[in-house]
Amino acid sequence: MKRAASKIAITLDNNMLKRLDILVKSKFFPNRSRAIQEAVAEKLTRLEKSRLAQECAKLDPDFEQSLAEEGSSSELEQWPEYWGAIFIGLI
User: Fold this and answer.
1) Would you list the domain boundaries of the chain?
2) Closest by CA position to 19, among listed 7, 30, 34, 35
3) pLDDT tens digits along 5-25
4) pLDDT, tens digit, 9 for 90 and up, residues 44-62
5) What distance in Å separates the CA atoms of residue 90 and residue 3, rounded to the nearest whole number?
6) Contact in structure between 35 and 29 (CB atoms under 8 Å)
7) CA separation for the pair 77, 75 (Å, rounded)
8) What is the pTM of this model?
9) Is the dihedral of CA 13, 14, 16, 17 positive or negative?
10) Beta strand spans in 23-82 (E)
11) CA dihedral for 22, 23, 25, 31, sign (positive or negative)
């Protein structure tokens, strides 16, 4: 399934364009457009992962653990049949 695409104009310095054309000539990429699409996609993915890591670093592990454990014992008491089935391997 093809995704909708938009044409844009970009400016590259001559050296970068020559290096890009070498990759296209050597069939590493089918064309300039695909090479640039993949480069932008890769960069966006790296930035998104970096952003997630930065946000995770702000978390307090002790506080997050206490939130995760909050209410655990009362939940177990509310669902004894379910948890029992899990522990003996029925679910």
Assistant:
1) 14-87
2) 35
3) 999 999 999 999 999 999 999
4) 998 888 888 888 888 888 8
5) 44
6) yes
7) 5
8) 0.55
9) positive
10) none
11) negative
